[in-house]
């Protein structure tokens, strides 16, 4: 019997080595990794620049605590906020922790206590993040939760307006709902959110934990809609697998997070920041980002050509290399078939196959994945 709490439903095999998009299990079985550790290893496995950054910094100093100046943290913060509506960074070690910082800052800065989030959203597993999350199954058995969250239907401006009152501190949202089934709202919805926040002096918190760091073909997904967030949160792709999270906020919030107001031991260590810097040095280049956007577009076109009218497929949607194939039925058996044929994917919600290749994926690898997907749908269609 395993000595682990069975909190995860795991596959039977282990991945023991990887290079770029390709990974191998303990039996030397080869796969294309279109999970990227759930949108984490955005530069693929063992990217040479990231490997050399971790080697170099690990021989100097790893951790000093935030009792001291940390030059790597200053530099990383500058890189993250450059040419964005955000001015300041707070570093931590995970997405849920970044969201905790955002929730605390929003309450302290506004002096108000109500935060509006959306049905089907996902914001992490801490008490704050879980309470913010708009999915009942995540919260089962953990009540009472943090009470100040109100969940409204996604993509519904009217319901959103109805939920706002004088105690509303913030609206908190993902740009594209990741875990909840890769749901993309209509363009007018994003415009309305922006307008509501600007006019009613409500903070806009954008959870970019999954969508950030180049995943959608922009540094941050909010850039697709010209949103003006007061706070954003990051983690997943920020360290390419080394644990690091961040909350970025506008300068006006500075005084609400003065000395002693918030903190974490591990947040922003020289090692974590050096690794993350090497990731951003590659991803935050216009040429790199436009290539991601282009590869995503072509891949979606290829998928649409072969699958669009397939009876098992409902919709293909996404942005950049955050792509979902919504099916007519639950996708667990599809994901298993793909895995047996060398393609690793991860479901989103019940009915969506989520495709999260590394941003460095090659066109040949995308073609191969499209071919495997096509075969899979043909197979299930003829046998059903
Ligand atoms: C994964 C995720 C989180 C939680 O991040 P952890 O690092 O697992 O705490 C929060 N928000 C979104 C949108 C996510 O996808």
Count up the domains: 2
- The chain-level structural class is alpha/beta
Name the bound molecules: pyridoxal-5'-phosphate
Order of helices and strands: EEEHHHEHEHHEHEEEHEEEHHEEHEEEH
| Beta-strand segment tally | 17
Fourth-level CATH superfamily of the largest domain: Type I PLP-dependent aspartate aminotransferase-like (Major domain)
- CATH second-level architecture of the largest domain: 3-Layer(aba) Sandwich
Mean pLDDT: 97
**What count of helical segments does DSSP give?**
12
CATH class of the largest domain: Alpha Beta
Largest sheet: 7 strands, mixed
Radius of gyration: 21 Å
User: What is the CATH fold-level name of the largest domain?
Assistant: Aspartate Aminotransferase, domain 2
Write down the overall geometry: globular
* Beta-strand percentage range: 15-25%
Cofactor: pyridoxal 5'-phosphate
Catalytic activity: N(2)-acetyl-L-ornithine + 2-oxoglutarate = N-acetyl-L-glutamate 5-semialdehyde + L-glutamate
Pfam families: Aminotran_3
Keywords: Amino-acid biosynthesis, Aminotransferase, Arginine biosynthesis, Cytoplasm, Pyridoxal phosphate, Transferase
């Amino acid at each position: 019997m395993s000595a682990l709490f069975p909190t995860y439903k795991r596959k039977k095999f282990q991945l023991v080595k990887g290079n770029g998009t390709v990974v191998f299990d303990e039996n030397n079985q080869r796969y294309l990794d279109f999970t990227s550790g759930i949108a984490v290893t955005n530069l693929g496995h063992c990217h040479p620049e990231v490997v050399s950054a971790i080697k170099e910094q690990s021989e100097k100093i790893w951790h000093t605590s935030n009792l001291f100046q940390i030059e790597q943290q200053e530099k990383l913060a500058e890189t993250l906020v450059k040419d964005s509506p955000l001015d300041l960074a707070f570093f931590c070690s995970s997405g849920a922790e970044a969201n905790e910082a955002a929730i605390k800052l929003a309450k302290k800065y506004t002096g108000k206590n109500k935060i509006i989030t959306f049905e089907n959203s996902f914001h992490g597993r801490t008490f704050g993040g879980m309470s913010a999350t708009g999915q009942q199954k995540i919260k089962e058995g953990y009540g009472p939760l943090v009470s100040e969250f109100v969940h409204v239907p996604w993509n519904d401006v009217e319901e959103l307006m109805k939920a706002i009152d004088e105690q509303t501190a913030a609206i908190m949202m993902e740009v594209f709902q990741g875990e909840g089934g890769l749901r993309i709202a209509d363009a007018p919805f994003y415009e309305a959110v922006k307008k509501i926040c600007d006019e009613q002096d409500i903070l806009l918190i954008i959870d970019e934990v999954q969508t950030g760091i180049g995943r959608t073909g922009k540094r941050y997904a909010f850039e697709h809609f010209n949103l003006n967030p007061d706070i954003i949160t990051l983690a997943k792709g920020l360290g390419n697998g080394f644990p690091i999270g961040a909350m970025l906020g506008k300068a006006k919030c500075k005084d609400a997070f003065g000395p002693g107001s918030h903190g974490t031991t591990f947040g922003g260590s020289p090692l974590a920041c050096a690794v993350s810097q090497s990731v951003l040095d590659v991803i935050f280049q216009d040429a790199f980002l436009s290539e991601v956007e282009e590869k995503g577009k072509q891949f979606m076109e290829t998928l649409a050509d072969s699958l669009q009218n397939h009876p098992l497929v409902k919709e293909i949607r996404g942005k950049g290399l955050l792509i979902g194939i919504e099916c007519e039925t639950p996708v667990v058996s599809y994901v298993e078939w793909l895995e047996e044929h060398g393609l690793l994917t991860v479901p989103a919600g019940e009915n969506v196959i989520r495709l999260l290749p590394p941003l460095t994926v090659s066109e040949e690898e995308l073609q191969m994945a499209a071919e495997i997907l096509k075969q899979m749908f043909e197979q299930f269609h003829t046998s059903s």
